[in-house]
Design a protein that fits this description.
Length: 99
Amino acid sequence: MALDAPTATRDVEEDAWSRVVAEQVRTAMGVLSATQREALTLAYYGGYTQREVAALTGTPLGTVKTRMLAGMRRLRQELGGPVGGGALGDAATVEEPRA
């Protein structure tokens, strides 16, 4: 079917782009401290909540939150801006709705 070709091409392009982005993120993660990298890896790749990361690492919840925030800000610097279309750990970039 001729109609299937654009979808297949799009899937290949999306897959290629996903791999490029994943490699950029892996490289950027290398500049983080071990504790920041651990917290972010457990949360984003492991699927754990911040509370669970704290329990797993034996670290106070506030410390986990601080490490994740600092790590996300550093990743933003390394990657050249917001990733994924959203604010990375910076509430200042989220605009409040106007009344």
